[in-house]
Design goal:
By secondary structure, the chain is α+β, with helices and mostly antiparallel strands. It has 3 domains: about 160 residues, Aldehyde Oxidoreductase, domain 4 (2-Layer Sandwich); about 190 residues, Aldehyde Oxidoreductase, domain 3 (Alpha-Beta Complex), CATH 3.90.1170.50; about 240 residues, 2-Layer Sandwich (Aldehyde Oxidoreductase, domain 4). The chain is about 25% helix and about 25% strand. The protein is built from 18 helices and 30 strands. A hairpin with a 5-residue loop joins strand 23 and strand 24. Helix 6 packs across helix 7. It is globular and about 85 Å long. About 0% of the residues have low confidence.
Amino acid sequence: MKDLTASEFAMVGTRAPRRDARDKIHGITRYADDFSLGGMLYAKVVRSTRASARLVRVDTSKAAALPGVRCIMTAADVPHNVLFTDVPGQTTVVGALRARTQVLAADRVRYFGEPIALIAADTEEIAEQARGLVEIEYEDLPGVFDPVEAMHPEAPQLEETGNVISRWRVRQGDVDAGFAAADVIVEHTYQTPFIDHAFIEPEIGVGWLDEDGVITIRVATQVIEHFRDVANVLGLPHSKVRLIAPFIGGGFGGKEDVTVEVYIGLLVWKTGRPVRLLYTREESIITPTKRHPFRMRYKHGVRKDGTITAIEAEFISDAGAYAYLSPLVLLYAMVHSSGPYRCANVKVDGTAVLTNNTPTSAFRGFGSAQPAFGYESQMDACARAISMDPLAFRERNYVCKGESLPCGQPVDHAVLLTETARRAWEALGPSCAAPPGKRLGRGIASTLTSFGRIVWLHDWSAAWVELQMDGTIMVRIGVPDLGGGQASSLVQITAEIFRIPMSSITIHIGDSSLTPLAGTTTATRQLYMSGSAVHKAGMELRAGLLEQASSVLGVPAAALTMDGGAVVQVDGAKRISFQELAASCSRSGRERYRHSVFHAPAGKVMDFETGQGRVFPDLTFGSQAVEVEVDEATGAVRVTKLATCYDVGRVINRNSVEGQMEGGAAMGLGYALTEEDILEQGVPRTPNLMTYLIPTALDVPDITTIVLESGEGSGPWGARGIGEPAMVPTAPAIANAVYDAVGVRLTQLPLTPERVWRAMRDAAP
C-alpha cells in the first residue's frame, strides 16, 4: 500500500489549530472537576501523621456518628487490600520485589500521608469535619530516610525481602584498562531532589453505579487500563468497571499510577451512590508520587585528544515507601547513564531502595533526567580538564547512527546531535558584558531520551477509523489526552490520510468500555504507538474505499486519489463524494471501517548480567544552550537566554512540537533552580505552592525553538516523540552555565541562591 511522501503532505507539518483549542480558550472543556451528579457524596481520605508506625487503634465511631456521614471504610472493609500484584502491564515482575501497594494501611504506616480510611458524606464540609474526628493511635517505629543507610542490613526493613528492591548493571569492555589509558580522570558525585509534578489540575474523579451494575469512574488519569485495578480490588469482573478519562489538566507521570480511582470505586461499591473525590493542593503534594532523588557517582577517563576511554558510575535511587515503578525508572536510568556518547569501557551499577519517604514513581523524563545532570556536568568538567572547548569535546564523542550505546542499545536512526548543539549554541547570539554586580555564563547540554515502551513488553495500540454515512470520519481510540494535543495529533494524521479538513473528523478518546485500548499516555509513546495505530487503520480503510470507488467509477484504484471529501480521478474526469461512497459501501456490503492494531517491534530480553541489549524501540536526540546571570551578592541565578533544538523526525503539528519544547524547557528550569520537595524525617516541609516553588512567567525567558526533521523516527511518517525529551537537557545546561559564570561546579540540584552563594564564598581566595 503506497503511503504519502513528504512532498505530498497537506496537513502534516502545518500549524493547524488544535482540535481542542477553541473549547479550552472559551472555558467550555469539561474536566473531571467540572462534572457532578444528583445525590452525589463527597469523599475525603484520612491520612497518617507518622512516617513509620504501627497502627494500634483506628476509631471511626465519632466520625460515623456525625450527621451527614454516609460511609467510612478502613482496610478491613476492602475486599482485596493490595494493588499491583499480578496486574498485566504493571512493572511488578521487574526487580527482586514485586510492586505491592496497600489500598489502605492495615497494620502499619510506612510514610507520612499514607491513606488509612475513607469517608463519604453529604457535603465536602461534613466529610472534612468527619476526617478530623477519626482517632488514630500509633506506636512509633524506627524509620529510615536515607537510601544509603537503608541498604545496611541493620536498618529498619520496610519489606520482608529487604529494602533493596532492584539492582541493575551495565558492563562493557575493561574499565580498569580504560582508566589506565586515560590522561585525565574526572570524578564527581551528583544529587537530584524529590520534585512534585505540580500539574494545574489536582487528582480528581467522580464515580457512579449505572443501570447495568457497572461502576463508572470519570477521572483524571493517564491510564484508563486502571479499570482492571479497581475491579481486582473489588473482586469484580473487569467488565463491571469502566474508566473515562476526559481532557486532563496535566499529568507528567503523576497520574500514571492509581490515584483516586480505587477509593472512588470502593465508596461507590459500598454506598451505591455517586461519589466525588478531589485532592487539595496540599494533599496532592504530600501524597505519592514524586520524581526519584538520585545520588550518582560518576568517573570518566579522558585522553588529551578528547577521547573518552572509560566511564564508571553508581546510582542510588530513593524509591520511598513502596516500589511503584522504581525498578523500571532505574532500568531506564541505566540505559541513559552514559548519555549520547560512545565509550568502549563502561561499568555502571544501580540500586533502588525503599525508605520511609513519600513513594516515588513516574515523572516526565522517566529515568533519563537524573543521569543527564550527571553525565552532562561530567562532559563539561572533562572538557575543561583537558583545556578543550565543551562543544568540541562533545562532538568528538557523540554516538553515530549505526553504532550502539555502551549498554548495547542500537542507534538505528539519524543522530543530528552536532547540528542540534551548534544550532542551539548559535541561537544565543553574541555575548554581552555583564551588568555591575553580575556574572554571565553560558552552557550547553546534549541528551538522548527513549520513547516507547521496553521492547520485550510487546507494546501495542488499537484504533477504530470509520467512514460515517454523512461522509465524515470518526476515530475511536482509548488515548487519555493530558493537554499535550494527543487527540488533536491523531485527528491531523487522519485528515492527512483522507485529505479532508480536521473539522470533518470526530474523535472519541479515553473510555475503557467504548474505545479500543491504546495503552498508557506515558513513555512519550502515544504519537508513536497510537499515531501508528490510527495511521494503519486509516491507510487500510483508505485502500478499501479506493477499491470501492474504483468499482463504482470504473477507474483503476491506482488512478484515484482523495481530496476535499471525495475520491477523484487523478486527471479530474470522475469523482464520487465520501457520502455517496459510504452509501455505495453499505449497499455492496463493503466495510466502511477498520479496527487495526499496531504492534511495536518486539525484541529479546536484555542480558541482566551485563545490561547489554536493545531496551527501547527508538531515541530522541537534542540539545539546549542557555545564558545565565548570577548575582554576586546573593547567588541568585537568572536564565536570560534559552535555545532548544531537537530532531523530531517528522513534525505532525508544528505548534504542538514547539509548545512541548517550550514547556519542557520551562519545567527543566524549575528542576534546575527552584523545585525541591523537602522532607525532614519523612515529613513534607513544602506542602503548597508558596513553599514548593515552580517557575512563573517572570522566571522563564523567551525560548528559541529550533526544529529539525530527519524523517527517520519510528512514528508515523518518521516522527519521533518530543514530550519527555524536551525537559531533559535544561538542568545540566544551566548548571554548566553557572560554572562558566562563577568557576565553581555545583553538583546538587536545585541551584538555589544559597547553594550558589556558598559555593562562590568557599571558592573565593
